[in-house]
Amino acid sequence: METLTIHIQHQQQMCLVVVNTGVETDFSDAVTLTVSDLKPKPELTSDPAGAALTGNTVTLTCRMDPSTGNWDSYWYKHTLNPETEKKKTNSYSLKIDSVSDGGQYWCRAGRGKPVYYTQYSDALWVNVTVSPKAVVTVRPDERVFRGETVTLRCDIKWGGDTEWTYRWEIEGTNNRYKNTVSRTSTQELNISGVDLSHRGKYTCTGQIHTQSSQRSDAVTLTVSAEAQASVRVSPQPWLTEGESVTLICEVSGSSKGWTFSWFRDHDHLSDSSRGAGGSYTLSPAALQHTGVYTCRAERGRPAYYTHNSSSQTLWITGVSASVSLVINPSRSQHFSSDSLSLSCEDQSNSAGWTVRRYTDKDTQTCAKRTGSGCVMDSLSTSDTGVYWCESESGEKRHPRNITVHDGEVILESSVDPVIEGETLTLHCLHRSTNSPILSADFYKDGSLIQNQTTGEMNITTVSKSHEGFYYCKTERGQSFHSWISVRVSRSGQISVLKILSFLLAASPYLLATVVLLYKCYRARVSSAEDQSQYAVTEEETSI
Question: Which helix H or strand E contains 178, and what residues bound it?
């Protein structure tokens, strides 16, 4: 093989090749070399432009005129000190982890050895703002029922005018929806006819161009098979007209967004204001309020309805001064194995009143009767219930609650309502002695009102505010709860005769004084009448 030696000579930006054989090639095409007096200056841009959000990436680009050839880019942050110089390509990806990543950035280009540098670009300010955090809200509730309409909303507090787009992520509880990602340009994610497959954790993020907000906290959507309303009564379903009672409607495991409807004997009750917030209050209760009550709850648009609650019977009996139920011992709580007697006292001496009771949804006459009364030699917890007097015609009077306790402690309280202004006395009794315990705590509606004193508590001058559930507690155990009812006293009950009786008892001489004053009064009246009659007679005579 022949070895060729090639020589290149420059001549007016052209070259030729001389081969040692003495043969010359043709000249190359001309290349024009342009020399500028000024150093080139790159242009620095950012994507996205404007404020950068933490947690995102900003891409800086150092652009040179393509006609100037290929260049390497050199980057500077905060200062033009060469010690901060970083050699990279013409694009620089800046991860924004915190606000401190913001500031001034420059770039310049260079090439060759030794490196020939261009001018610095103009400074570019990268303004960093803490990325807002998305918040997910759910209507009507995070716990919903199959068939309801659910709306999840993604909110981002942001002062800018730029509109966000939204990205939803769902981590389902089954393989079908595991890590499903849903994209939408609206804030709200609507699910009509939700079912068990929609259960899971929902999160969202907002997006402006290539930047994202912080991800929201996960909201767990729980879907239950069906909603069931339930009704309970406070303080008790058996009461006398004039007393107060409240029915409470609840949806098991859910409390948000419900409105309630009430029914008595299957008829819808129009006085919905009584049922605001799920409570239906009768105050004062009247005889016509007796009946079977149910409730139903609804929420959402379109409306979703629960099943009707189970029934709750309210029984309001009339006030009768002549008939009363006498209980011995006279208290509402009793120990098991103790004896108890009940009888109906009728001041009008009308016959036919018997003791009846309602226990475990069963109405019955007392098993061991003594005339109009009832005797239970050995009580058991199955004897707990409501007892009343009933006539042969079916009239019911004076219902009272009796509670039988298997434990060691009971609360002794009046079986009848306390009259406003009187004194209420409570005792904490122990089974072994059936007498007040030396030391006991007393509670009203779950709050301690007297502690570690004697086994007795007195409330003087009782008012309506003292109504509530009371119980006592000792180291030996705790009593059941008893409802203490306070009846407002009727004005004018203290008659003039009672006042006079008191005054006469205090001063025996007052009687004689009253008699004398009365005689003087009658004498003056008689004299005035005589004079009037005489004047009339004279007038008639003159006529």
Answer: none
